[in-house]
C-alpha cells in the first residue's frame, strides 16, 4: 500500500484528510494524520473571548470528531521530517515512511523573540489573544480594569489573520463603551505597517474607522524591546510608548520542527510554489495553510481556497501529470467592527480589496469594504460554517479563485 502522511490536524490538515479519504482508493492508499494536540481550536473565536462574547468552551472540540474513520490518527509531537528519505520521526519513537507528504503544521506566536515581552509581566498587564491561554487571561484582566492607556502592538509581519488586531481594536472600543469607561481608556495601535492595513484602499477605509473611533495610529513602528518595569515599548528608531495594558501580537513563526528539519526560511515558513502549492525542493511534498511562505493572508479561508488546488495537483502528480498553477492567493475575511457591524474583504495576489457585493454580484447579501449588520452576522455564522462545512472540505457558494464579478474599482 502507498501512504499519504499529513502533518498537523488543524484547519488545513483536517480538510485534506477528509478530501483524500473521499477521492482515493483506500484498498490502495493508507492515510495517516499526526498532531500533538487532541483538541481542535476554532482560532477565530479567540478574538471574542476577552470581551465575554465567547467563552473557552465555545471554541474547542475533539479533533477526532472531524476526521473520517478511514484515516489513521496519531497523537504525538513530530520530532523531525527527513524529506530526502521520505520519512518522519515522531517523539513517541514511531518512524513513518510516506509516498506523499502534506505539511499543515500552521504557525504560532513566539513572544520570546521580543526582548522583555515575557519578562515578569506576561499575562499580568501584557497579553496576547492568539492563544486560548492569552485570550482567557486577558478576559480576567479586563473584568476589573478601570481604564488607562491600552497599546495594541503588532511586532512584525506576517501574522495569521492580519485583520484580527483591527477587529480587536474595534471590539475594545465597543466593549469600553458598553462598560461606560471609554472616556477613561486611551487606545493606541502601534504597527510596523505604514497604515491600518497592508493594501492601500482597505488601509484608507480602516484607517478612517480607527480615527472615527478615536484610536491613535502609530504607523511604521518596529518594536525593539519592552520595558515591563517602566511599562513602555521602544522601537528601533527610539520611539517610546508608555502603556498600562499592552496587548501584543507577537512574532508569528512556523513550528520548530520545520527548523529542526532544515526545511524553512528564517521564520520557519516552508518555501512553496505560490501557484501550485508544491514544495520548491521535494516534488512529493505539498504545503497547505499557514505553514508555507505563500505571500497571501494566513487564514482558515485561504487554507480552504488552497484545498481544491492542492487536491487536484496531488491527484495529477499521482497520474504523472504536471501540477496546474491555479492558486491565486484568494483571501476572504470578515472584519468585526463593533456595535454589531462588520466589513468583508475579498482579494488575491493581484487584486486588492475593492468595494462591491459578495457572493452574488449586485445582491450580496454581504457588502465588500463597507460596514453592515449583515456582515456582522456573517462573521458570527462563520463558527458554524467552520465546524460543519469548512473542516469537512465541503463546497461553499463561491469558487476557490477570486472573481471580479460584483466588485467595482
Ligand atoms: C485570533 C485569531 C483570529 C483569527 N481569525 C480568523 C478569521 O476570522 N478567519 C480566518 O479564515 N482565519 C482566522 N484565523 C487564522 C486561522 O485560524 C488559521 O489561519 C488557520 O487555522 C490555519 O490553518 P493551518 O492548518 O495552517 O494551521 P492550524 O489550524 O494552526 O493547525 C496546525 C496544527 O499542526 C499541529 N502541529 C504543529 N506543529 C506540530 C508538531 N511539531 N507536532 C505535532 N503537531 C504539530 C498543531 O497542533 C495544530 O493542530 C485567526 C487566527 C487567530 C489566532
Number of helix segments? 7
Spans of at least 5 consecutive residues with low confidence: none
Class of secondary structure makeup: alpha/beta
Enumerate the strands of the largest sheet in spatial order, edge to edge or round the barrel. 5-2-1-9-20
Residues in helix, %: 10-25%
Q: Which percent range describes the beta-strand content?
A: 25-35%
Query: What Rg do the Cα atoms give?
Result: 21 Å
- Tell me the number of strands: 24
Mean pLDDT: 97
Question: What distance separates the N and C termini?
Answer: 52 Å
Q: Bound small molecules, which ones? A: flavin-adenine dinucleotide
Largest sheet, in brief, is: 5 strands, parallel
Concise summary:
This protein is an alpha/beta fold and 409 residues long.
Structural features:
409 residues, alpha/beta, five-stranded parallel beta sheet, 24 strands, binds flavin-adenine dinucleotide
Amino acid at each position: 500500500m502507498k501512504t499519504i502522511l499529513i502533518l498537523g490536524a488543524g484547519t488545513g490538515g483536517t480538510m485534506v484528510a477528509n478530501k483524500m479519504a473521499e477521492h482515493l482508493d483506500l484498498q490502495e492508499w493508507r492515510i495517516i494524520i499526526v498532531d500533538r494536540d487532541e483538541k481542535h481550536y476554532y482560532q477565530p473565536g479567540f478574538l471574542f473571548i476577552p470581551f465575554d462574547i465567547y467563552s473557552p468552551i465555545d471554541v474547542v472540540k475533539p479533533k477526532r470528531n472531524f476526521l473520517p474513520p478511514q484515516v489513521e490518527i496519531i497523537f504525538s509531537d513530530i520530532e523531525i521530517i527527513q524529506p530526502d528519505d521520505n520519512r518522519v520521526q515522531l517523539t513517541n519513537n514511531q518512524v513513518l515512511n510516506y509516498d506523499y507528504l502534506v505539511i499543515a503544521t500552521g504557525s504560532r506566536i513566539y513572544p520570546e523573540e521580543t526582548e522583555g515581552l515575557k519578562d515578569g509581566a506576561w499575562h499580568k498587564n501584557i497579553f496576547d489573544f492568539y492563544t486560548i491561554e492569552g485570550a482567557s487571561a486577558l478576559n480576567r484582566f479586563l473584568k476589573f480594569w478601570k481604564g488607562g492607556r491600552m497599546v495594541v502592538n503588532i511586532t512584525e509581519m506576517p501574522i495569521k489573520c492580519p485583520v484580527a488586531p483591527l477587529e480587536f481594536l474595534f471590539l475594545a472600543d465597543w466593549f469600553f463603551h458598553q462598560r461606560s469607561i471609554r472616556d477613561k481608556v486611551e487606545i493606541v495601535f502601534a504597527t510596523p505597517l505604514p497604515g491600518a492595513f497592508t493594501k492601500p484602499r482597505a488601509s484608507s477605509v480602516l484607517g478612517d474607522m480607527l480615527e472615527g473611533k478615536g484610536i491613535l495610529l502609530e504607523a511604521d513602528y518596529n518594536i525593539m524591546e519592552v520595558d515591563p518595569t517602566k511599562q513602555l515599548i521602544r522601537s528601533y528608531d527610539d520611539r517610546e510608548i508608555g502603556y498600562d495594558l499592552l496587548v501584543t501580537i507577537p512574532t508569528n513563526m512556523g513550528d520548530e520542527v520545520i527548523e529542526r528539519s532544515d526545511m524553512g526560511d528564517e521564520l520557519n515558513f516552508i518555501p512553496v510554489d505560490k501557484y501550485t502549492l508544491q514544495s520548491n525542493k521535494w516534488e512529493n511534498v505539498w504545503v497547505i495553510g499557514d505553514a508555507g511562505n505563500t505571500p497571501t493572508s494566513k487564514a482558515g479561508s485561504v487554507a480552504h481556497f488552497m484545498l481544491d488546488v492542492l487536491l487536484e495537483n496531488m491527484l495529477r502528480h499521482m497520474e504523472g501529470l504536471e501540477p496546474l498553477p491555479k492558486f491565486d492567493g484568494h483571501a476572504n475575511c470578515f472584519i468585526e467592527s463593533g456595535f454589531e457591524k462588520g466589513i468583508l474583504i475579498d482579494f488575491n495576489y493581484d487584486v486588492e480589496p475593492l468595494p462591491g457585493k459578495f457572493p452574488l454580484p449586485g445582491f450580496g447579501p454581504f457588502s465588500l469594504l463597507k460596514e453592515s449588520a449583515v456582515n456582522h452576522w456573517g462573521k458570527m455564522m462563520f463558527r458554524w460554517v467552520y465546524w460543519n462545512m469548512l473542516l469537512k472540505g465541503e463546497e461553499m457558494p463561491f469558487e476557490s479563485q477570486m472573481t471580479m464579478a460584483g466588485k467595482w474599482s
